[in-house]
Write a structure and sequence with these properties.
It comes from marine metagenome. GO terms for molecular function: oxidoreductase activity. This is 3-oxoacyl-ACP reductase. InterPro entries: NAD(P)-bd_dom_sf, SDR_fam. Keywords: Oxidoreductase. With 303 residues, this protein is of the alpha/beta class. It has a domain of 205 residues: 3-Layer(aba) Sandwich (Rossmann fold), CATH 3.40.50. Helices cover 39% and strands 17% of the residues. The strands form 2 sheets. It has an 8-stranded mixed sheet with strand order 6-5-4-7-8-9-10-11, with helices on both faces. α1 packs across α7, α3 packs parallel to α4 and α5 crosses α8. The longest helix has 23 residues. The protein is globular. The N terminus is likely disordered.
């Protein structure tokens, strides 16, 4: 996304002392709202629908500036307008398809240019188990592994300087209770493929990454955590898989908000809903985490 045309700047007074700069022309035709210097900034990937949308709405209602991300400009801009209209927070939309590493890099670079802080990164974007067919990304990687895991890995690495400079800050990786050990001899699952296996492997990779981040940020006020928000939430992803929903999006959003806000979270923890849980044994295998890190750095070029 690129700025175009001649920008006209105007000041808009919101509330008694709140001052926002608004650029009359911006991304995809939307007005660009710059957060106040004291305003919390939170990026929620995959926030144009389902769980991410509800989390973004709640954060906006708490006064945060929400960076909305998704593939649909229409849905993204609608959510931005909704957040701004409801107040007291603000929002801005960025479009990027996580099936493209180039678009992920462009998203990270744009956020680094446009923002001076990032208090929370919520890696929520995901692709479910359906359809049960092997698909590949623009970069030739198994699609779920890239969208569900590699995208968050790359984006986190790109935004690391902003996250570190914004301490205390958090990284919340939205994973799942569906976890399958990563087969490092066939990470892209070219043999014996199933959508469920691909999804579960990518979700476990997120948890290994979270534990790696906890070690990386040890001694800092950067807090990486992961969670299974709720089982079979009533989302498009679950319905597409032909599964009867068992929980609501509100329940999942409660769990995500808990990890964003609770003062009682320990770096590297994995939650099932609102409670501390136990991930797959491979999550605690240092050798597996090392292999995943080396593989991910090689595939993305990020360090």
């Amino acid at each position: 996304m690129h700025f175009s045309g001649i920008y006209e700047y105007r000041f808009v007074l919101t509330g008694v002392f709140s001052l926002l700069f608004i650029i009359s022309q911006g991304l995809a035709g939307q007005s660009v709202v710059v957060p106040r210097p004291d305003q919390e900034v939170i990026l929620v990937t995959g926030s144009t629908g389902g769980l991410g949308r509800e989390v973004a709405r709640r954060l906006g209602s708490q006064g945060a500036h929400v960076i909305v991300h998704g593939r649909s400009s229409e849905r993204g801009n609608e959510l931005v307008e909704e957040i701004i209209a409801a107040g007291p927070g603000s929002a801005r939309f960025y479009r990027a398809d996580f099936a493209s590493l180039q678009q992920i890099r462009a998203l990270g670079e744009r956020i680094l240019m446009d923002y001076g802080r990032l208090d929370v990164l919520v890696n929520n974007a995901g692709f479910g188990s359906a359809p049960n067919e092997r698909m590949v990304s623009e970069d030739g990687h198994e699609l779920r592994f890239q969208v569900n895991y590699l995208a968050g890995f790359l984006l986190t690495k790109l935004l690391r300087p902003l996250i570190v400079s914004s301490q205390p800050s958090r990284i919340v990786n939205v994973s799942s209770a569906a976890q399958t050990a990563i087969d490092f001899d066939d990470v892209m699952i070219e043999k014996n493929f199933s959508g469920g296996r691909a999804y579960a492997q990518s979700k476990l990779a997120q948890i290994l990454f979270t534990l790696d981040l906890a070690e990386e940020f040890q001694g800092t006020d950067v807090l990486p955590v992961s969670l299974h928000p709720a089982t079979y939430m009533d989302t498009e992803m679950v319905r597409r898989a032909g599964v009867e929903p068992r929980t609501t999006v509100d329940e999942g959003a409660d769990a995500v908000m808990h990890l964003i806000r609770s003062p009682d979270i320990v770096p590297g923890q994995y939650f099932r809903g609102m409670e501390v849980g136990n991930p797959h044994d491979q999550a605690h295998d240092q050798g597996a985490r090392n292999l995943l890190r080396i593989l991910s750095e090689g595939l993305t070029g990020a360090r």
